[in-house]
Amino acid sequence: MRGSDTTRDPCPWVILNDAGGAFCMGAIGGGVWNFVKGGRNSPQGERFRGAVAAMRARGPVLGGNFGIWGGMFSTFDCAMRGIRQKEDPWNAIASGAITGGMLAIRGGWRTASVSAAFGGILLALIEGIGIGISRLSTGAQPPMAPLPPSPN
């Protein structure tokens, strides 16, 4: 649980930061993925050239997809924080559901509903794992036994 974090930037900057970070993560990951895929699918003498061509063609596309998802998620997260006036895991879960639904709305209401449910469930799992890890890390230290009273 994030709690009330006063060191965090204001929402417009958070949205831009998250969108840019998601784009970079998608572009780098997509570049590596498509480099390997392009190298495997190229003929024997052209593997490196095919790998570089696939990386240059598809890496930025995947980065753009990640950037759009990250920007929309962060926008909805900031909106939920503003509407609810609190910062808790429910904001991220709702933001994941809204983002999933909005990105799939062109496929119709049924597709958008399934994507929204999937987005909400995915973010609930991520938030639940984060809460569990934070509880384990803070609760891992055994409580200290009280010291016996001093004779003085």
From TrEMBL:
The chain crosses the membrane at residues 115-134. It holds the Pfam family Tim17. One of its GO terms (cellular component) is TIM23 mitochondrial import inner membrane translocase complex. It is found in: Mitochondrion inner membrane. It is a multi-pass membrane protein. One of its GO terms (molecular function) is protein transmembrane transporter activity. The keyword Cytoplasm does not apply. One of its GO terms (biological process) is protein import into mitochondrial matrix. Keywords: Membrane, Mitochondrion, Mitochondrion inner membrane, Protein transport, Translocation, Transmembrane, Transmembrane helix, Transport. PANTHER family: AT05822P-RELATED, MITOCHONDRIAL IMPORT INNER MEMBRANE TRANSLOCASE SUBUNIT TIM-17. Belongs to the Tim17/Tim22/Tim23 family. This is Mitochondrial import inner membrane translocase subunit TIM17. It comes from Smittium megazygosporum.
